[in-house]
Write a structure and sequence with these properties.
2 copies of one chain form a homodimer.
Chain A: E1 2-7, E2 14-19, H1 26-30, E3 37-43, H2 47-56, E4 62-68, H3 77-89, E5 97-102, H4 104-116, E6 123-127, H5 130-136, E7 141-146, E8 149-156, E9 162-165, H6 174-191, H7 193-207, H8 211-231, H9 246-256, H10 263-280, H11 286-298, H12 311-319, E10 324-325, E11 328-329, E12 331-336, E13 339-343, H13 348-355
Parallel strand pairs in A: 2-9, 3-4, 3-5, 5-6
Antiparallel strand pairs in A: 1-2, 7-8, 10-11, 12-13
Helix pairs in contact in A: 3-4, 4-5, 5-6, 5-8, 6-7, 6-8, 6-10, 7-8, 9-10, 9-12, 10-11
């Protein structure tokens, strides 16, 4: 069974296909490829598992593949250039379609490469991790990291379609699955308390990879995200809510060195920190903070920041994040479970206390 | 006296200010700066001449400057990253305005950096060469080069405004001035025979840097280009006419190594090659080819390709250019002076003969 979700962005609208074994249905893919040139971008972990299966469905195209090293620490301009090297060495024109086969790093890099190659070529996402299926496949944010900040160099660029094959989650290790669950839980916290409750009830089934439950979690997450993105594609306003946990989380990821703490792990810790600051401001009840921690722990996620990060490092790292406006850090905080707000109306002292 | 030309691109419309000593009028600039953060990007040649003057008008802003090496050979991802280094080290937010102070290379790199930094920040162009005043300041094409092709990595991204100060042309060397004249002559060839005739009459005055004549040439060039860009911002059709001479020219620039042949020199040679192929196809008269060569020579430009480039190298270099569609090279050719066409309807044998 396949679910189809349409992301509504005027002429940049596109479908997300969610279901079991969709890689065996190449027509989903080929109906979105214009021209005859295809570059598949994947990594060393995913290539042995799914690359051949993908290429088998594309025999009518001139296909090339570039296989990148696996990990957030390779999401930079230098490795991005390997995509351009391969595209140009293959003499692909501005009518090439780029396909991202992999997790969030591959999706972010392929999307950004597609946005820049000859000033823009079409691309398709085939996310193979839970994190990328619920997060980076919706919203068109593409980027690479800089040594001084995460996702600092990028573009808003929408894919032609997204194919989320839940069968690929069977090869995902437990830590990566949990990392994805952090983003799933985030949607409940932002504006969907019913989904949060559903997650509390189904967290074990999700960790046990029940395919139907996973598909439902992916669909609800993508729908929640797509609703927000459709209101604010370029993040001038409400879209910033999706950054819940991310300003803290990015600081942790950057400060620890990319790849040490997984993205979802950073977000999980960041959501707890956002909840604790919200609680210190009397915006959310202490019991709700405990409920959030309990669900994250049940999902196999960390809830405390690494002790090696000093509060000074933390503040410096948070200051370069994109949520800063004229020197003041805007944070996403919680008025309740299912009610996130964008705010710079918090006590700086309470933020400082949280970081020490 | 100052002329103002409006480039009409809906909500991305912007003004071009053309006139003498506009750097002494900072209000032109500041009326287009939002926020309080400014990064000036310039190069080693231009910085000693105009950077301080620019900064003197921006005392109310937190300004930083990054000074790049000068030359097309530095227009790559590695040097681009120096802009991001400086921006991040300065802890500039997504509300920073980037100002390009320099020629086409600085404009292209700053525009692309602005398009990518935190997925897009505002930028302003202050072109200080004739080439950049008549070409890269209109149209929103930004890019860096790749070892395998020129301008292969970039974005369409419009500035807030362009300030073309003709006084800056007084410090330009003769070869650079001539390089700019190649693009000026191009507009006459594409669709403005009256301008071509005017250029034949005024070419000496232009080389002698008559300020009024220069200002008129810049205004007419920008207007011609803006008219075409307004019809086709993303180069799906008619905008390709602006590439007259460029497919040949890029091959020469890339093949000789960036910086050996100036951009305008490559374009001049490329326009002669386009004219000669058009003449071989009986589309343009032999006398018109001679008229074109005569004007280019009078402008101080080369008209013959470097002999070291083999025809095979030429074809390979042209094949990676952006004008290729499903393996066939589309060229901009001439039906007459002032009547360029986009065509793949030429004889491949005649093209091959031209390259040998």
């Amino acid at each position: 069974m396949m679910k189809t979700l349409q992301v509504a962005l005027d002429e940049r609208s596109y479908p997300i296909y969610i279901g079991d074994d969709l890689l065996s249905r190449p027509e989903l893919l080929t109906s979105h490829i214009r021209g005859k040139e295809v570059l598949v971008v994947t990594n060393e972990t995913v290539a042995p598992l799914y690359l051949q299966k993908l290429l088998d469905g594309l025999t009518n195209y001139r296909c090339e593949a570039v296989i990148l090293p696996d990990g957030e620490e390779f999401k930079n301009l230098t490795v991005l250039n390997e995509i351009f090297d391969k595209t140009l060495a293959s003499q692909f024109s501005r009518h090439v379609t780029m396909i991202a086969l992999g997790g969030g790093v591959i999706g972010d890099m392929t999307g950004f490469a597609a946005a820049c190659y000859q000033r823009g070529v079409p691309f398709i996402q085939i996310p193979t991790t839970l994190l990328s299926q619920v997060d980076s496949s919706v919203g068109g944010k593409t980027a690479v990291n800089h040594a001084l900040g995460k996702n600092m160099i990028g573009a808003f660029y929408q894919p032609q379609c997204v194919i989320a094959d839940t069968a690929t989650l069977n090869t995902l290790d437990d830590r990566q699955l949990s990392s994805g669950l952090a983003e799933v839980i985030k949607y409940g916290l932002i504006n969907d308390v019913a989904f949060f409750v559903w997650l509390e009830e189904n967290i074990s089934a999700l960790r046990n990879r029940d395919q139907d439950i996973l598909a439902e979690a992916i669909e609800r997450s993508c729908r929640d995200k797509a609703d927000i993105v459709a209101q604010d594609e370029l993040e001038q306003g409400v879209r910033a809510l999706l950054n819940l946990g991310h300003t803290f989380g990015h600081a942790i990821e950057t400060g620890m060195g990319y790849g040490t703490v997984l993205h979802g792990e950073g977000v999980a810790i960041g959501m707890v920190m956002a909840a604790e600051l919200s609680s210190a401001m009397d915006w959310i009840q202490v019991e709700d903070v405990e409920r959030i921690k309990k669900l994250l722990l049940a999902a196999g996620l960390p809830i405390s920041p690494p002790e090696v990060l000093s509060s000074e490092q933390f503040m410096n790292l948070m200051s370069v994040d994109k949520k800063v406006q004229n020197g003041k850090i805007r944070l996403i905080l919680l008025k309740a479970i299912g009610q996130a707000i964008i705010s710079d109306d918090y006590s700086p002292d309470k933020l400082a206390a949280l970081l020490t």
